[in-house]
Design goal:
Elements lengths: L1 E5 L3 E7 L2 E8 L1 H9 L4 E8 L5 H9 L3 E7 L6 E5 L8 E6 L19 E4 L4 H10 L5 E4 L3 H6 L1 H9 L3 E5 H8 L4 H10 L4 E5 L5 E4 L4 E4 L13 H16 L4 H18 L6 H4 L3 H15 L7
Parallel strand pairs: 1-4, 1-8, 2-6, 4-5, 8-9, 9-10, 10-11
Antiparallel strand pairs: 2-3, 6-7, 11-12, 12-13
The chain binds adenosine monophosphate.
The site of adenosine monophosphate has 18 residues, from strand 2, helix 1 and helix 8.
Length: 304
């Protein structure tokens, strides 16, 4: 089954304690679609400026991502600059240049409108809503966001959260959005808005998935080498949605497996800068790390 994703395709300038990447390929939709493309067909909705190199578009197309919804308009591509300290869990945004994002009017190609899976990646919530309204009858809609939009467009964002099935955000964002320090209480508040599930990403501490009645916890894969956490969240979401679209299994068990595939994809992405690790990733490595995950989290029950 195919997935439509709207989000940013960007130039990133990123500094971590291990090095610096300047004007490298980034963006929420770029990471998401690359990760999801290992599992399902993906169609991209995004905007770039005249300065965006063709080789990056070719990379997406080589991963069989449909780029007919990628607009190129006059102006400069969205640019994000960020820094990570030794605590790699929290990015510090140094600068956000919206550029062409300010004039972006998402217009979905006809072939995208019957998509069954829709991911509203991190982008202006008004744009997320415009895309949501153009997809006819999606089976599953999930969204992400970021502190930038929580503080600049809280009302528009609330509307998005009320209209999706699954919200996937960072723990800091869950706290910021609700003003609630306790994550379980914050999760309850977000679910009360109308979504069925909330997935809270906690960096190296893993992921929590909440419904009104249940909670599932997965660790992050313990990694010896973490170079650049940029895009980990979007890569997680790509593996999660990609696996769901691949199997069509939206049961609790299916969603738990998808959480692990998302975590597997994120664990690869942090091993190198930008999308460099994704570029050389092979499916058999994904399968092998899924098995390692199973071993990592399985233990014997007590015998009474
Ligand atoms: P992640 O590390 O998964 O949360 O996402 C990192 C990506 O988000 C980077 O590649 C950035 O280009 C992109 N990004 C940063 N700020 C924003 C923003 N305000 N809106 C949309 N995308 C953003």
């Amino acid at each position: 089954m195919s997935i439509v994703v709207v989000g940013t395709v960007a130039f990133d300038t990123v500094e971590t304690p291990f090095g610096k990447g300047e004007n490298v390929l980034g963006g929420s939709a770029t990471y998401f679609s690359t990760s999801a493309s290992f599992f399902a067909d993906v169609s991209l909705v995004a905007v770039v400026g005249e300065d965006f190199p063709e080789e990056h578009v070719a990379f997406l197309q080589n991963r069989a991502i449909d780029t007919s919804g990628l607009q190129r308009i006059p102006g400069k591509t969205f640019h994000w600059s960020g820094r990570y300290g030794y605590d790699l869990n929290e990015a510090q945004t140094l600068d956000t240049q919206l550029n062409v994002l300010m004039d972006f009017k998402p217009e979905l190609p006809e072939s995208y409108r019957d998509a069954e899976y829709l991911f509203l990646a991190n982008i202006d919530p008004d744009l997320q809503m415009e895309v949501l309204q153009q997809v006819r009858k999606p089976k599953l809609v999930a969204c992400d966001t970021m502190n930038f939009w929580i503080s600049s467009k809280p009302e528009a964002l609330k509307k998005v959260l009320q209209n999706v099935d699954i919200v996937i955000i960072n723990e800091g964002e869950a706290r910021q959005f609700t003003g609630e320090a306790n994550l379980v209480k914050a999760a309850r508040q977000i679910i009360a808005l109308g979504c069925k599930r909330l997935v809270v990403k906690r960096g190296e501490y893993g992921v929590l998935m909440f419904t009104a009645e249940t909670v599932f916890a997965a660790p992050a894969f313990p990694m010896e080498e973490v170079f650049d956490p940029t895009g980990a969240g979007d890569t997680f979401a790509g593996g999660f949605m990609g696996y769901l679209a691949n199997t069509g299994d939206l049961s609790e068990e299916g969603l738990r497996q998808a959480i692990i595939f998302g975590s597997v994809m994120a664990s690869f992405n942090v091993e190198d800068f930008s999308l460099n690790r994704m570029k050389r990733l092979e499916f058999k490595e994904i399968q092998s790390r899924f098995s390692s995950f199973k071993a990592l989290t399985s233990f014997r029950d007590v015998s009474v």
